[in-house]
Each structure stands twice: as C-alpha cells, then as structure tokens.
TrEMBL record:
Entry's Gene Ontology molecular function annotations: ATP binding; UDP-N-acetylmuramoyl-tripeptide-D-alanyl-D-alanine ligase activity
Keywords attached to this entry: ATP-binding, Cell cycle, Cell division, Cell shape, Cell wall biogenesis/degradation, Cytoplasm, Ligase, Nucleotide-binding, Peptidoglycan synthesis
Main location class: cytoplasm
Listed Pfam families: Mur_ligase, Mur_ligase_C, Mur_ligase_M
Biochemical pathway: Cell wall biogenesis; peptidoglycan biosynthesis
GO CC terms in record: cytoplasm
Role summary: Involved in cell wall formation. Catalyzes the final step in the synthesis of UDP-N-acetylmuramoyl-pentapeptide, the precursor of murein.
Location within or outside the cell: Cytoplasm
Residues in Mur ligase N-terminal catalytic domain copies: 30-77
Species in which this protein is naturally found: Streptomyces kaniharaensis
Sequence ranges assigned to domain Mur ligase central in this UniProt record: 108-294
Its EC number(s): 6.3.2.10
One of the GO BP terms on file: cell division
Protein name: UDP-N-acetylmuramoyl-tripeptide--D-alanyl-D-alanine ligase
Length: 467
C-alpha cells in the first residue's frame, strides 16, 4: 500500500482517531483477517454473520497492525468510522488517486470475468508491476482490498467488477476510476435478481459510462447488448470478437485433440498466431478481450500473442484439468455456473473427448445453476437437452428439482434411458462414478458455487495419483 499517516487515513475515511498517534505511518497491507496482519499494516474490523472482527483487534495489533479500522472503540489504537465497508472504499479511492502513473483496467460480464482477468494480468505483468485480485474478489469488500495493494511503482491495476444490483458497478468505479473498461458479455447469470437480460445490460453498462473522454471502452462485437453500449460512453470504442468489423479479432480458430484452441490474432497493428494452454473454445473470446487491453496499453501484437500462449489458469476450479494415473481426466469447473458458462463447458468437454474410433467417454456431472428466477426450470431443461445434442456420453444430474428438470430434459430430447441419471447429492455422484468410470474417460464437474460440487472432483482425484 502507498504509505499514509493515520491522520491521513482518518481524513480519507471521515473518521476519528481513538488512542492513535496521528503521525504513525501505515506501510503494510490492509487485512480483514487478524491472522494475516503484517507489521505496519491496518486491520479492518468487519462484523460478519458468525465473527465480529472487533473481537480480534488486540490480536491484530499484537501481530503488528499500527491501528484498527473500527466502528466502535476496541481498546487499541483505532480509526473510528460509522461503516467499515464504506471507509474501506474511501481509503482505496485515496490510495488509487495518489497512484497517478497507474493505469486502471476494469472488466465486467456475465461469464468469464475471472478467467479473463487472469489473462490480462499475466499479459500486463510482462510490461510492469501489475496488481489484480486473486480469485473473484469483485464486491464492495474484495474490490477495495485489491486496490489498497497499489504501491508507488504499480504500473497496472486490473479490477474485476461484479454486480447483483443496479448501481453496484457505478459504486466500484467510484473507488477505482478506470481508464480502460472491458465488457465481456451479457448473459442470464443473476437474471433472477435483475429480471431480464436488458436490465443486466443496463447494470453492466455503468462501467463504460464511468470512462473518461480519453479512456477506452473495449466491447464484445459478437454480443448485441454489449455492442450497443458504445452509445453510452464518451470514450474511444474498441471492438473484439470474431465479427468481421471487430478491431481485435480471431480467424482460423481450431481445437487440438485435447480441446485447446489456436487462432490467428488480428489487430490494426498486425497479426500473429496464438496457441492457448487453456481448455475450451470459449477462451478464444476471453483471449481476444485480454489482447485488446494489452495492445491498447502499448504491447506489441507479437508480445501479446506470445504471452497468451504462455498464460495459464490462475484461479481454482475454473476448467481445472487434471489427469489421473489411470488415464481418467477430471475437469473441475465447479466454482460457479450459469447457462452461458454451462454451455461453454459442455462444448469443451466434448472437444476433449475427441471424435472417431478413438473417442473417449465423456461424463457431465452437473448441479443447479442458481439465481435464474422464473427461467430456472427452462434453463435447466435446455442444458439437459444440449448435453444430448452434443453427444455427451452420460449426464449425471446432481440435486433436487432443478437437477431433475435437467435430467428430464435429456430424456425428452433423446430418450437416453440409462445414459442419464439423477442422483441426490455429491456423495451419491461419487459412488456412481467410482463404480462406472473406465480408464480414458473425461469427467466434467460443474454447478453454482453454493452447491459444493467441487467435492466430486476432489474425491475422484483422491482416488488416483495425478500425473
């Protein structure tokens, strides 16, 4: 973090000092977990559902925190505020404002945010110190926590922005005003919260509205709702995608025998071949988005293509592919799920299975996609039907009503009979797979995060030593 005195911290957050020396410098990171506090840092005391951070204030100071950001006196040096969440955002805004040489890149979308954020970070790291969130820290707490890691030498700050309500992204952009804003897609994730795709697009578009006139909006040319956001920004617009009029586009897209895509990256500055290490054709769009950001920030096309070829998956449980010693391939994509990402994962599974006489058996172990509102049953039915049309060898639907609807959709589409099955929970899925898997099979595991279906992948991997 950029060093601030406690007096400056208090001024930034509109707080008051309690037992703290105003001249004391905060030089370490801000932490919300007292076990992670480092000397010179600041401890933010949040009141959670089960734990009250204020109870750990003294422990944090003993560990080296110079003060606590708190909403009540805690018996140790503190900056007292009405809301620790709001104060964290204000403090992050102050730090980012002082980092005048840091280019802020923000991205949002219904699917692929974290994978694309990881790609962008790996590209930009080749050209300077880059701060980005681990995993999916994209809300009102994780977002400022990431921004507070900015230091005087930070060249790039890459921020992933999620939204569950209108105004969420507008708030996040007020903390880290972006120079480059990227919108990946508008799908049906959280449609139960927003009511329609158009409402989702309205919320996602808050990102491009926040851009300055000398900024850049990078928009998906292949998504009509995203493309339309060009009318909502005063910034320069760069389109990416496979559309012929995209500024950054992919041609000659191919998948190798393992399901990893290659393509020719074409930009106004030239073209270069790309071979991705990531699995699934959907990563072509993510790679184009990352490339558009990198080129906009001055990377050459050749450097960008080379960096894309070296980039891997940084965040867990997102198309995480592991081969067991017996040849079974486990694809753990259980971090989250919505209709768009589920379709992409199924297509990736089929491509990994291959074609012809050497085709491998493919298993789709799928759980509920949550927050789909009135469209939930129809969307689950559609995924079951798609599994049949893609010729997945066997669908294992895990859970209750939504899973049953998915499995019924598969039966109605293709009369699969024993080739689709409904099981009650992760343990039942593991038991079934252990009894029926054969060497060489490919197993995809995917559901919304709260379903906890990663337990299936972990159990399968525990059964064999990974290569």
């Amino acid at each position: 973090m950029i060093a601030l005195t406690l007096a400056e911290v208090a001024a930034a957050v509109g707080g008051t000092l309690d037992g703290a020396d105003p001249d004391t410098l905060v030089t370490g990171p801000v932490e919300v977990d007292s076990r992670k506090v480092r000397p010179g840092g600041l401890f933010a005391a949040f009141v959670g559902e089960h734990v009250d951070g204020h109870d750990y204030a003294a422990t944090a100071v003993e560990a080296g925190a110079v003060a606590v950001l708190a909403s009540r006196p805690v018996g140790v040096p503190a900056v007292l505020v009405d809301s620790v969440v709001d104060a964290l955002g204000k403090l992050a805004r102050t730090v980012v404002a002082r980092a005048e040489a840091t280019a802020v890149v923000a991205l949002t979308g219904s699917a692929g945010k974290t994978s694309t954020k990881d790609l962008i970070a790996q590209l930009l790291q080749r050209h300077g110190d880059t701060v980005y969130p681990p995993g999916s820290l994209n809300n009102e707490i994780g977002h400022p926590m990431t921004a507070l890691r900015v230091e005087p030498g930070t060249r790039h700050l890459v921020m992933e922005m999620g939204a569950r309500h209108k105004g969420d992204i507008e708030y996040l952009t007020s903390i880290t005003p972006p120079r480059i804003g990227l919108v990946l897609n508008v799908g049906t994730a959280h449609v139960g919260e927003f009511g329609s795709q158009e409402a989702i697009a309205e919320a996602k578009g808050e990102l491009v509205e926040a851009l300055p006139a000398d900024g850049t909006a990078i928009l998906n040319a292949d998504d009509r709702l995203v493309r339309a956001m060009a009318a909502r920004t005063r910034a320069k617009v760069v389109l990416f995608g496979e559309s012929p009029d995209a500024h950054v586009r992919a041609t000659e897209v191919r998948l190798d025998a393992t399901g990893r895509p290659s393509f020719t990256l074409t930009t106004p500055a030239g073209s270069a071949p790309v071979q991705l290490r990531l699995y699934g054709e959907h990563h072509v769009s993510n790679a184009l988005a990352a490339a558009a950001v990198a080129v906009e920030l001055g990377m050459s096309v050749d450097d960008t293509a080379a960096a894309l070829g070296e980039a891997g998956a940084l965040s867990r449980w997102r198309m995480e592919v592991v081969d067991r010693a017996d040849g079974v391939t486990v694809v753990n994509d259980a971090y989250n799920a919505n209709p768009d990402s589920m379709r992409a994962a199924l297509r990736a599974l089929v491509s990994m299975g291959g074609r012809g006489p050497e085709r491998r058996r493919t298993w789709a172990v799928l759980g509920e996609m949550r927050e789909l509102g009135e469209e939930s049953l129809a969307e689950h039915d559609a995924i079951g039907r798609l599994a049949v049309r893609l010729d997945v060898t066997k669908l294992v639907a895990v859970g209750g009503r939504e899973a049953a609807c998915m499995e019924l959709g598969a039966r109605n589409e293709g009369s699969w009979g024993e080739e689709s099955v409904l099981v009650s929970d992760a343990d039942a899925a593991v038991e079934l797979l252990r009894s029926q898997l054969r060497p060489g099979d490919v197993v995809l595991v995917k559901a919304s995060r709260s379903v906890g279906l990663e337990k299936v992948a972990e159990a399968l991997l525990a059964d064999g030593v990974a290569e």
